Amino acid sequence: MKRTLVLLLTVFVLTVSFGLSIVATINPYYLILKELVAGTNNEVFLLIKPGINPHTFSPTISDVKRLTTADIVFANGLELEPYLEGYREVIFLSDFLPKEILLKDTHESHEKDEENDKEHGEFNPHIWVSPKLVRDYVIPQIVKVLLEKDPKNRENFEKNAERLINSLNDVVNRFDQLLSSYKDAVLVITHPSIVYLTVPYGIETLALEEGHGKEPSAKMLREIIERAKSEKLLGVFAEVQFNEKLLIPIAKELKKEIVVLDPLGVNVKNAVDYYKNLLEAFQRATGVK
Ligand SMILES: [Zn+2]
User: How far is the centre of ligand 1, averaged over its atoms, from the C-alpha of 120 (Å)?
Assistant: First the structure.
């Protein structure tokens, strides 16, 4: 009898003191999850630390341990995390976007050498840069999973989600105000990380590289410059963690300042600041507040 009681008490204590162990593969999802679980005893871990390129990441032994013991792993999908194959409890957030929203990851210059284009899959994976997609598909899906795994914290999750969505509504409105007047404009960027943010406004991306570490040809650079000169140019963007040296002569010729974007939120502390930071980069590029 005594032993049963001790056992019951142990189980009770374990259940109460340990929440879910949740892993997010990339920083933007980690920031979102931290806000959604605020006020609960669930713990969120970031797999790919800021400063590491998610396209070339491979897990260490301690990462593998973390992934194996996690109750839930939130990943992007679209071939961004091929190393997650074989793990249970992985939710690929891009699976919950309507297929027609997904953007092809092809590029004119790459159709010729598909062989080398292994880093990205069929679709461009960077869905998290769009506050609209995150608000409408990613957050509802995360909340659904959290409610299934931890129904006792329903009130917290719902309250946190509502607050986050309200803040995102504000950012979305500000993006709409800023970018809706740039229909048919083009932008130059080191790699196509922000298409989910810009394509809905009719803005075309001229990316120097499609995958990663792939140098564009002189002919391709020339074409980008000619396009940017003949069309309405929104801006020239470099990205944190990307080598911007190829952009310098282009920006000079186009008489534009290089604006640095932070698509992984390396330098931000919370989800709303992540999107505000992206917005500020566009404000700097356009000169519009
Ligand atoms: Zn990328």
Answer: 7
**210 Cβ partners below 8 Å, 6+ apart?**
105, 106, 107, 109, 110, 117, 120, 191, 192
Listed by start position, the domains of the chain span 19-170, 181-286
Alpha-helical regions (H) of the chain: 2-17, 27-36, 61-69, 131-133, 139-149, 154-179, 195-198, 218-230, 247-254, 271-286
Q: How many angstroms separate the alpha carbon of residue 196 from the centre of ligand 1? A: 12
Distance 270 CA to ligand 1 centre (A): 21
Ligand 1 centroid to residue 76 C-alpha, Å = 12
Ligand 1 mean position, distance from CA 53 (Å): 9
- Rounded Cα distance, 258 and 225, in Å: 14
Fold (CATH) for 19-170: Rossmann fold (3.40.50)
Q: What mean pLDDT do residues 151-155 have? A: 98
Topology match between the domains 19-170 and 181-286: yes
One-letter amino acid at 51 equals G
Residues 258 and 248 sit within 8 Å (Cβ to Cβ)? yes
CA–centroid distance, residue 208 to ligand 1 (Å): 12
In this prediction the pTM is: 0.89
Matching CATH number, 181-286, of 3.40.50.1390, 3.40.50.1980, 3.20.20.450, 3.30.420.40: 3.40.50.1980
- Side chain identity at residue 27, one-letter code: N
Integer Cα distance of 282 and 22 in angstroms = 33
Q: How far is the CA of 146 from the centre of ligand 1 (A)?
A: 28
Give tens-digit pLDDT for 53-102.
898 899 999 999 999 999 999 999 999 999 999 898 999 999 999 999 99
| Span from the CA of 110 to the centroid of ligand 1 (angstroms) | 15
